[in-house]
Structure formats: structure tokens, C-alpha cells
Amino acid sequence: MPSSPIDVLSRHLEHVTLTDPSIDLPTLAAVLDTVPDPRSRRGRRYRLGPLLALTLLAVLGGATSLAQLARFIAGYDPGLRVQLGLPATTRPAASTLGRLLARLDGDAFDTATCGYLASLAACQPPEQATPTRTPLLGLAVDGKTLRGSRSRDGVVHLLAAIRHDTQTVLAQRQIEAKSNEIPAFTPLLRSLNLTGVAITADALHTQHDHAHQITAAGGHYLFIVKGNQPTLLRRLKALPWREAILNDRTDETAHGRREIRRMKICTARPGLPFPHAAQAIQVKRRRTDHKTGKTTIVTIYAITSLPPGRVTHAQLAALIRGHWSIEALHHIRDVTYREDASRVRTGTAPRIMASLRNLAIGLARLLGWTNIASAADYYRSHPADGMHLLGLMT
Known about the structure:
Elements: H1 5-12, H2 28-32, H3 48-60, H4 66-74, H5 78-83, H6 94-103, H7 106-122, E1 137-151, E2 154-163, E3 169-174, H8 182-190, E4 197-201, H9 208-216, E5 220-225, H10 230-237, E6 248-254, E7 257-267, E8 279-289, E9 295-304, H11 313-322, H12 325-335, H13 349-366, H14 372-381, H15 383-389
Parallel strand pairs: 1-4, 4-5
Antiparallel strand pairs: 1-2, 2-3, 5-9, 6-7, 7-8, 8-9
């Protein structure tokens, strides 16, 4: 029987402590077998679950194109392919693999893979709670355009929700053609348990309906406020920030620049034109580029349903900074996996490839990899470890 993913996490990183090592999750191949198979039963040569698991293993090893995926799969030991119920000699062509990915149900694929990642991430120990506070999970919502997918029908745009701490994608939806991210926000979060969760989002999603949805589901929100909410922005700017005390200050040097962040908080006054608003936040960010010597100062306003005392000031500042973890995920997909350069355009294939990248990055993060490029190099050189991780070997 394939080893449990929980056991594999323990073997890969002995210092990782799991909340319940006895949990027995299904193997990833079994999870992927639940995705509806679009192929006709007649003439199928490959079981869908193991084939998709091998495809993910190729992505985990750094494959960025259909041709590379096909070469990875063809290079696996024939005995392993037989063990997985796949033909030992027949090798899928890149075009065949591309047609399969293009016909998969994107919603079903994301439901299966995001649920799997959520189960694995839940096995990691939460942050230690203080006697008066329960842990609060940060969940960032943002969208990304797959630029290489542009065709006569438009370009694929995806909206995702990811955990701040593990960079794992818990939900993802494709934006309808001739629409935008706002209508997709509600269905994206509908399937998630928002109890003890703080949703962070940029100004596009600072919408009254979104605030109502999150709080009704037992969660909290932290939204950036910009010009698309002019009345709210004007009221926030008019708050007595000069008299407010400094609640948090950080000073960091990285990536060739020094950045000082100063955060002030005002308890939201009655009549602030946004539902469930409890606190208003001002962040002044002073950034100095060491190479050019240029200094820029940016002021950001935000609003949150978190009441005073629910989290510490440092935790609130961390939630604001943590939102940009989703931008880091997008950067990795573009730089390490060359997503914007991908020319996969047919059907749902662009979305499936993006989901495979999300899954590979999430698994690597849960194993403790801080550099995804290094993780790809490792699993390309040690495919047996990747096979253990995916439950393909005992």
C-alpha cells in the first residue's frame, strides 16, 4: 500500500511537528482519480489519477511545457508505470497530454487539489494562541492573468485564495469572459470555513457585499481602501491620525532596499460608511533604494472588522504584510515556472497547468522549502523522493 502523505512529510523533514500523525489521508493519485475523466472509455491506455500524479511530479521537478512533461513521464521506469496501471512501453505524446489537460473540468480539478492541500496544511501546528486569543489564519484573495494563454477568445484570468503562512492555495476559480474578479469573490469563498479566518484583499474587493459575506460566515476582513471607495477613503483620511499613537514599527533591509513601516490604528467611529468596520488603519511605508539612494514614501489606508484586542498590533501589521504572499506565489510561477511565457492555450489546459504549479509550490512549502527553484532541482535529481511524496511508491 502506498505510504501516507503524513508519513512522507515526517520523513522529508524530521523537524516538522504534525498535530495528528495518525491522520491517514488518501494518496494524491487517488485524489486525482476522483476528477471526471473526459475520455471515452474505449481505447483508454492510461488511468487518469496516476497519469496526472506523474504529470505533477514532472512539474515538481521543474517542467514548464507540455513537451517537457511528456519527456519526464516517458523517462520513468517501465516497472513503475506497470505498478501504477499504466502501459510499460507506450509513451504519451505531448499533443496527447495537451488534449487531455484541455478537456479536464477545471472546477473539479481545483476542488480536488485545493482540498488535498488544505488537508495537508491543516496537519501543520497552528500558531500558539495566548490565553485570551484564539489563532487567526490569514487568507489572501487576489487574481492573476495567464498572459501566455491569450487567444481570439481572450485571456485566462484566475482568482485564488491562499494561506499567508504556507502559501497553499485553498480555492481557485476562473473569471468568466467579459467579467471581472468581483462576481467571482462570493463563489470562491463559499466552500471554505471562514471561522477564525481573516480575509485580506486589495482595493478591488473592498465591497459591501464581500464584507457582509465574510462576517456572516464567521470570518473577519482586512481590506485596502483606495479611490474606488471615494467616500470611505475621504473619511479615513479625515481621521485624527496626527494625534493617534504609533502602534507598530518595523525596519527591514532586503533586496537592495531598506523599508520602514509605521502603523497607526483608529477605532472606527459610528457612521463610517462600511459594514462591520471596527478599526481603521494607516500605514506609512518609507522605502530607500540602496543603489540609487532614492527614497519614496507611500501612505496606505485599510479597514478591518477585527475588534480592538482580537489580535496584537504586531499581528495586525503582519496580516497586512502577509497579503503580499500571494504576489510572491505569482512571482514564483512566472520566474521559476515561466508561466507568462507558456504557450499552452487550448481549452482548460492553461488553468490546469496553473493549478499543477500551485500544487507543486504548496507541497514544497509544506515540506519546508524556502526556495522553490532549489526544490525543483532537488526533485528533478531525486525523483524517488517525489514519488514517495505523491504516494506512488512505498
